[in-house]
């Protein structure tokens, strides 16, 4: 696989890196990536929507009128579903939308997403992503130097609170570690910015 340039935080090329063709050079599988995105979004749903059934609505304890002789249809409660302020029939209740994908499918989807970023020339490798202090200006300066506009995903080899919190105030910018990467975030960003050490870890995990 051809080499890709490695930049520093000032946007200057400092070296080149050859990516693993097994991870970053496969033919992206659109169907598998779609399945992974749908799975991710379904697993994010809280499923806390709820309606009151006739047993949970207050009132309706006595029969509104006698069974026969009134000319009305027979009724047993003013909180039956057909009544105003009655309970809801077959309404939503709290539930889990979570389901899992096959492990091989998840791996193929991740490799496809990574490879698609290389094909679309949206992958930017930085030799070291770090900041000496909690300062949004430092990360914003890096993004501008490497030509990142719009949504960006910054991938770190490990948790770095200074970088994470410095990037948190920039609209459209997310941070992640290698072990928290997901297909949705990769495909949803305009620039996939990865630290060189994080690239090596990704290759170790998915090669």
Please, could you describe this protein's structure?
This protein is α/β, with parallel strands linked by helices. 34% of the residues lie in helices and 14% in strands. The protein contains seven helices and six strands. It has a six-stranded mixed β-sheet with strand order 2-1-3-6-4-5. The longest helix is centred in the middle third of the chain and has 17 residues, at 103-119. It is elongated and about 95 Å long. The mean pLDDT is 93.
Which helices and strands appear, and what pairs or packs with what?
Blueprint: E1 3-7, E2 13-18, H1 21-24, H2 30-44, H3 103-119, E3 123-126, H4 136-145, E4 152-156, H5 161-167, E5 173-177, H6 183-188, E6 191-195, H7 196-206
Parallel strand pairs: 1-3, 3-6, 4-5, 4-6
Antiparallel strand pairs: 1-2
Helix pairs in contact: 2-3, 4-5
* Low-confidence residue ranges: none
- Per the principal axes of the C-alpha atoms, what is the gross shape? elongated
Mean pLDDT: 93
* Relative strand content: 5-15%
The succession of helices and strands, N to C, reads EEHHHEHEHEHEH
Distance between the termini: 14 Å
Helix/strand/pairing category: alpha/beta
Helix run count = 7
